[in-house]
């Protein structure tokens, strides 16, 4: 639970690699949801200068409004906000800051706007699936493809699913474990090439072509 929650809410969800959709096998969905909600409720917005704080503020008032707009959209699309989604009542220097309690949403279609657009905030949607093929179809059902995580005790399944995910990065039983020597980048509308290690030489270089015609 701490690993999945970190993938959803780290840096207030303002990381391009955040796992904003969680797909859960139906046989464990109810147990997972209960445990995940308990974990999410420990992510309490507070002073970002305090080392014990898990959730700081969003980057601006405008962005806070945008994220809250997606929460309203989620309800319109048939979702239920199971926890969070409110502005905390903070005092002193934190009063009036761009803080938002991390939100967990269930009951949404995996193809709706809330579940397929990049909210870039402390908001996560949870979707049950019945088969591995269905999970892969749901995971790939977005125009983005930067990062994904597979959580399983079956290593064969981990490799099989990771190969089929349309994503530039796939972690197994972890999130944001980086080796800067390997390629970093995504596919589909997340695709802008690769950087990292030897790939950075090309990514951060400007190639020039000079053509000379000799008669």
- Number of helices, where a helix is a run of at least 4 consecutive DSSP H or I residues: 7
Name of the CATH class:
Alpha Beta
Largest sheet: 4 strands, mixed
What value does the average pLDDT take? 97
Radius of gyration: 20 Å
The tally of structural domains comes to: 1
How many beta strands in the DSSP annotation?
6
CATH architecture classification: 3-Layer(aba) Sandwich
Task: Calculate the terminal CA-CA distance, rounded to whole Å.
Answer: 71 Å
Report the portion of residues in β strands. 5-15%
CATH fold-level name? Aldehyde Dehydrogenase, Chain A, domain 2
Class by alpha and beta content: alpha/beta
Query: What order do the SSEs take from the amino end to the carboxyl end, as H and E?
Result: HEHHEEHEHEHEH
3D architecture notes:
The chain has helices at residues 2-9, 26-40, 61-76, 113-116, 132-139, 155-164, 199-203; strands at residues 21-25, 80-83, 103-106, 123-129, 147-150, 169-172. It is an alpha/beta fold and 215 residues long. The chain has one domain (2-203): Aldehyde Dehydrogenase, Chain A, domain 2, CATH 3.40.309. α6 links the parallel β5 (147-150) and β6 (169-172). The termini are far apart. The model has no long low-confidence stretch (mean pLDDT 97).
